[in-house]
Design brief:
This protein is α+β, with helices and mostly antiparallel strands and 416 residues long. It contains 13 helices and 21 strands. The strands form 4 sheets. Strands 1, 2, 8, 9, 10, 11, 20 and 21 form an 8-stranded mixed sheet that branches. Strands 5, 6, 13, 14, 15, 16, 17 and 18 form an 8-stranded mixed sheet that branches. A 3-stranded antiparallel sheet has the order 3-7-4. Bound molecules: flavin-adenine dinucleotide (FAD).
């Protein structure tokens, strides 16, 4: 049966525009329907893990991102209130040593990242529409989408519809695909700041002190994307007109003296806060539909995996689509299988990280101190960090079990 397009992709962000670029280049007719009229700062990912950088290379998109201003980070420092700054800096991690030929994580502003991929998809021949209101998505043997663009309602058909429309995915809901979620673990606020030239351009840092855990990811040119974790009981801590200033003041911690550059910086975008957790769909596929990126389920942002996850989704799905002309739901079985295990492992790694770094008070502090000491002689304790940097598949499955989590948190220390 003939259709208007091979692919209709709902959502033209990282996943949607990335997939459109790959499939348009492969000769598919692609329509992308993007809701926004311009990409704005929504406080989304700007740090691509080294394993995600590998994915951009495998997709042939890496050079594009570097030309668009993406820059690599060279060192990671974990500060903590249980150590002096010098002790923390002595255990800095060289980020170019994690994966061969990958100079470290890649940072690029999210709206600019989306626009870069959007323009590339257009350049490669995908039909890109924005300011679109999708009214109906109908899965099935002859899937179709109804949308309004510039006041005109249209109904179009495709061989396959791709849901790349983010966390609240309309496509996922239209397919009746359930999203399972962990309970929120902590609050997480993010803000882009400018005027932080004093913060080294190639150093990322995290640190926990009292009831605040900070994360800093320099974007170049004095801009730094900063995040903070804090207890769920303080959900309104940074609400109101002074919220951004209160948030930046929270970066004034003794364990990381360089943070004064962040405290002195100015907001360069909105401050948004989130209930952090992980979410997943059992099967992100329905007849005539496949979901990618956040639409298919997302990882707790505390470990910054969403972009890498999305790029791998794009690679796996595009490889399958290019491998045959028969686009049946069963074609996606390898994608579903790999993604299920990938998300399970990353959910585990995020939860270990959250329990170590985003829990507060004397017990949590003692746990972190013990963790840092034990990790000097037991490298297996840092498996969750390796998984988020080098990819969840590089480690054996026993690193992603309850027993391993108890071991990392020291809960098995007094057993027996
Ligand atoms: C606070 C926070 C910090 C994060 N930090 C990191 C990080 O450091 N590193 C990292 O890798 N990941 C991070 N992430 C996750 C990362 O941003 C996402 O996983 C990634 O952006 C997912 O890409 P996507 O294309 O699936 O979705 P999105 O980036 O959300 O894009 C979805 C697109 O679909 C469009 N859309 C939505 N609904 C519709 C509709 N009905 N019709 C048409 N278009 C629609 C939207 O306008 C948008 O352009 C973070 C997330 C959060 C919340």
């Amino acid at each position: 049966m003939s259709t208007d397009y091979d692919l209709i992709i709902v959502g033209g962000g990282i996943g949607g525009s990335g997939l459109a670029a790959i499939m348009a280049e492969a000769g598919a007719s692609v329509l992308v329907l993007e809701e926004s009229t311009e990409f704005r700062d929504r406080v989304r990912g700007e740090w691509i893990a080294p394993w995600g950088v590998v994915e951009t290379k495998r997709l042939g998109l890496y050079d594009l991102l570097v030309r668009a201003g993406g820059h690599h980070l060279a060192r990671h420092i974990s500060y903590d209130e249980t150590r002096t700054p010098a002790e923390s800096e002595a255990t800095a991690l060289a980020l170019d040593s994690i994966l061969p030929e990958i100079p470290g994580p890649l940072c690029i502003g999210h709206p600019h990242h989306c626009q870069t991929l959007y323009d590339e998809a257009s350049r490669r021949g995908a039909e890109m529409l924005r300011g679109v209101q999708v009214e109906e998505v109908v899965p099935g043997a002859n899937p179709r989408v109804a949308y309004v663009h510039r006041g005109v309602r249209l109904e179009v058909t495709a061989r396959l519809i791709v849901g790349a429309d983010g966390r609240q995915s309309q496509v996922r809901k239209a397919c009746g695909i359930a999203l399972h979620q962990d309970p929120p673990h902590h609050m997480f606020a993010g803000l882009l700041v400018e005027g932080a030239e004093g913060w080294a351009d190639d150093i990322q840092a995290i640190g926990t002190e009292k009831d605040f855990a900070f994360l800093t990811f320099p974007q170049g040119g004095g801009k730094v994307r900063v995040y903070g974790s804090y207890p769920l009981s303080q959900r309104n801590r940074f609400a109101g007109p002074d919220g951004a200033r209160l948030f930046l003041n929270a970066f004034q911690v003794a364990c990381s003296p360089e943070n004064h550059h962040i405290v002195a910086a100015e907001p360069a975008g909105p401050l948004y806060s989130f209930f952090n957790n992980s979410a997943w769909a059992d099967t992100p596929v329905a007849e005539g539909v496949v979901l990618i990126g956040d639409a298919a389920g997302y990882n707790d942002p505390i470990v910054g995996q969403g972009l890498s996850i999305t790029y791998r989704d794009v690679r796996l799905v595009s490889d399958l689509l290019k491998s045959t002309g028969e686009w049946q739901p069963s074609l996606f079985a390898p994608y579903v299988e790999e993604r299920t295990e990938r998300m399970r492992r990353l959910r585990h790694a995020a939860l270990v990280t959250a329990r170590l770094e985003a829990e507060f008070g004397p017990d949590a502090q003692a746990r972190r101190r013990a963790f840092h000491e034990r990790a000097m002689t037991d490298p297996a304790l840092t498996a969750h960090g390796i998984a988020v940097m080098a990819g969840p598949e590089v480690l054996p499955p026993e690193m992603f079990t309850e027993a391993h989590m108890d071991h990392v948190l020291g809960l098995d220390q007094h057993a027996g």
